[in-house]
Design brief:
The complex is a heterodimer of chains A (551) and B (172). Chain A has 551 residues and is α+β, with helices and mostly antiparallel strands. Chain A has 18 helices and 20 strands. In chain A, the strands form four sheets. Chain A has a five-stranded antiparallel beta sheet with strand order 1-2-5-4-13. Chain A is globular. Chain B starts with a strand and ends in a 31-residue tail after the last helix. By secondary structure, chain B is of the alpha/beta class. Chain B is globular and about 45 Å long. Classes of the chains: A alpha+beta (551), B alpha/beta (172).
Chain lengths: 551, 172
């Protein structure tokens, strides 16, 4: 894992001191709330319905066990004993006092953590494939490049007051577990015909009220030019992005209005003007960072699977968990294990301080002290010996984190919704809990197969409803919470935006509608066909008919 | 209003957006709008331009003033509001594309917390907004001794590139 050196630590300490002063000035009245707002947002501090919320970055989704323990400490000391993992590989603490925030940031800095640029109209926490460094299908570790981008984008003198927020995601695998095409800039690591490492660059994706799947802007960008290209793209955006309408200010609107080809030309024109040496990624720096992410030697164990098979023969719950919550590791005899934060009836993404401490201990025991945070609001232990999976599963089960539902119908993404968020029109969490309870039966879930349900409490789409196989959007219609249903979204290699099926439903109605959609799928599917595949084959009509013509 | 330079030291005053400057400000005896510049001067007027500055809003287009920049004494970039970060890019483009060597002055609405960003984007000095004090800006200029990105000016003590051994300094 990346560890901070003196430069990183100096900058972080100075940032904490700066924010302490900013809070002092705000409390003394030397800064108005209007002036303080962008400053606190650039430190991840929101004013929500009930209290301040602090959003802390998990850079590119990678955490050490000690960092996780620090989250547990923050949750116990400054919050109400829990934290909420988000769709952008952050953690949010929902019950924070303004005066405590400098101390929290100081505590976090002790383990190289921070809240820098987790909000505000700046370049946000860079996200990456949560299986990075472990996945068998990976071309290169995206965390290396994410860390380089993190450094370049941190307190950038030119790009800290952009027209709107700016999100970058990186994947090193074709499968795309980082939903890169729903980001302002999505980077996919590729090799060209000559074997050189580089990126496919997608620009202008996003969700919100105007969703776009990002078009490909640069088919191949040499890796050493990544910062030069980002610099060019950000300058075009900073100069030409709209500032007259907050809803039209994201780069996706600029790309759409110019057209992808013209935007690409504008960026290339700017790129050519930039000094190729000044912003070239330093090779030694790449190697320094690469070394820190290098996997230690793990002895392959080709016999481990047989042992696991025996254990699974004895335990059907273990078998189900292994089938859904583990993935192939690049080293034979190891596995990537997903720790579900979606227990039946639970709040998606929430973890208690005790659970965080236990996951940290389990990471030390079974996963080289490493933990990942996924954009689907789960945790991952990336380097687990296959032989240890039964023990890990049993330990997770003790703390209610062994739900065998990764990628299934109850693995729901939901934003905080009206329960916490001042922007929301409708509640998301209670809806997620009710759907989770409705489909609690694991046999039924496994029978339904892979299915993403995603819920947003407003059109800002923090619950990624546009990218859900089944998307639910909360709207306010004359003071009544209603929920619109969309079908067909995807947040992977084949990213797609779901289509609205018809008029919205009330809270009871939407539960029934989800049931009907799933029942329709089960009736129509062919052997082995997933929900997405059935929907692609049949189109939306059979689902629409079932919901609106023959409810 | 007081003007502070890159070291946080006073460098004269700016009275509103007045045109005439006495004493001259960064060599300019007059600071005119973009429209007035194009109306009153030709880019070939190399007698007057070295004593003239231009005050640009966030909406002014640099490209149709390209011929003036080699001769102008100074450029003032006016922030319409502190949240609008366009002047940061304008300063970078002035330094790089137009190779502008004169002073770039920040004016208008910005916060002490943006002072280091201003200087690192290529500004030479700034007019302290009325609601803040020079002391607050001087303090903000000392907030950081390190940075990850290459800076364009005014901060020789900051790391210039991402850990380039030729330019990096030890972190304090």
């Amino acid at each position: 894992m990346y560890t901070y050196d003196t430069l990183d630590k100096a900058l972080l300490n100075q940032r904490v001191a700066e924010f302490r002063e900013q809070v002092k000035r705000r409390i003394a009245g030397d800064l108005t709330e209007d002036q303080f707002k962008p400053l606190r947002l650039m430190n991840g501090l929101y004013l929500q319905t009930h209290a301040y919320m602090l959003r802390v970055a998990v850079p590119y989704g990678t955490l050490s066990s000690d960092q996780m323990r620090k989250f547990a400490y923050i949750a116990r000391t400054y919050d109400r004993g829990y934290g909420h993992f988000t769709t952008r590989q952050n953690i949010q603490f929902n019950w924070i006092e303004l005066g405590s925030t400098p101390d929290i940031l100081y505590d976090l800095s002790e383990v190289d953590l921070h809240a820098i640029q987790t909000s505000g109209n700046c370049i946000r926490n860079v996200t990456a494939d949560p299986f990075a460094g472990a996945a068998a299908d990976e071309l290169d570790d995206p965390r290396i490049w994410s860390e380089i981008i993190r450094q370049w984008s941190t307190l950038h003198p030119e790009f800290s007051f952009l027209p709107r927020k700016f999100k970058i995601a990186v994947t090193g695998a074709d499968a795309d577990r980082a939903a890169i095409k729903f980001h302002d800039i999505g980077l996919k690591i590729v090799r060209n015909d000559a074997g050189d490492l580089g990126f496919q660059v997608f620009v202008g994706g996003g969700q919100g009220r105007t969703p776009f799947v990002a078009p490909l802007i640069r088919p191949f960008l040499p890796a050493k030019d990544i910062l030069r290209y980002l610099d060019a793209a950000l300058r075009v955006y900073n100069q030409h992005g709209r500032r007259d309408n907050i809803y039209k200010a994201r780069i996706k609107i600029l790309v759409d209005s110019l057209g992808a080809d013209q935007f690409s030309l504008d960026v290339e024109h700017e790129f050519e003007k930039l000094d190729p040496v000044l912003l070239a990624v330093n090779e030694k720096e790449v190697e320094r960072i690469r070394d820190m992410f290098a996997l230690p030697y793990l002895r392959p164990d080709t016999d481990a699977q047989a042992g696991l098979e025996e254990a699974m023969e004895q335990s059907n719950p273990l078998r189900r968990w292994c089938e859904t919550n583990t993935e192939v590791h690049k080293v034979p005899g190891y596995a990537i294990a997903t720790v579900s934060l979606k227990p039946v009836g639970g709040i998606p993404g929430d973890a208690t301080a005790d659970q965080m401490d236990t996951v940290a201990d389990l990471a030390d025991r079974y996963s080289l002290g490493e933990i990942r945070v996924t954009y689907t609001q789960n945790l991952v232990l990336p380097h687990v010996r296959v032989a240890d999976l039964p023990l890990l599963w049993a330990a997770l089960d003790q703390i209610s984190l062994a739900t065998a539902n990764a990628g299934l119908v109850t693995d729901i993404i939901a934003c905080p919704g009206l329960d916490y968020c001042t922007l929301a029109n409708a509640r998301s969490i209670p809806l997620a809990q009710r759907i989770s309870e409705r489909f609690a039966d694991l046999d039924a879930q496994h029978n339904i197969g892979p299915l993403d349900i995603r819920i947003s409490g407003c059109i800002n789409a923090c619950g990624h409803h546009h990218a859900g196989h089944i998307g639910i959007l909360g709207v306010d219609k004359k003071g009544v919470e209603l929920y619109q249903l969309t079908l067909g979204g995807q947040g992977n290699r084949d990213s797609a935006i779901g289509k609205i099926l018809g008029p919205g439903f009330d809270e009871d109605g939407i539960i029934g509608a989800v049931e009907n959609v799933i029942a329709t799928y089960l009736n129509m599917r062919t052997i082995g066909e997933t929900f997405s595949e059935t929907l692609q084959r049949t189109g939306h009509s059979p689902f629409k008919e079932r919901l609106y013509d023959h409810p | 209003m007081i003007i502070l330079d890159t070291k946080g030291e006073a460098h004269g005053e700016r009275h509103g957006f007045s045109e005439q400057q006495e004493p001259p400000l960064f060599g300019a005896t007059a600071i005119v709008s973009a429209a007035a510049l194009k109306e009153r001067f030709a880019p070939t007027d190399t007698d007057s331009l070295p004593h003239t500055g231009v005050s640009l809003t966030v909406d002014d287009d640099l490209s149709d003033m390209a011929g003036y920049f080699p001769y102008l004494a100074m450029v003032e970039l006016v922030f319409s509001q502190f949240k609008d970060g366009r002047p940061f890019s304008t300063a970078v483009v002035l330094r790089r594309d137009f190779e502008f060597k004169g002073a770039i002055l920040a004016a208008g609405d910005f916060l002490p917390d943006q002072a280091l960003f201003l200087l690192r984007a290529g500004f030479s000095a700034f007019v302290v907004p009325e609601q803040f004090t020079a002391k607050q800006f001087k303090s903000a200029l000392l907030a950081y001794s390190v940075a990850y990105q290459p800076g364009l000016g005014g901060t020789p003590d900051l790391v210039k590139t991402l850990r380039d051994p030729a330019t990096a300094v030890a972190a304090g």
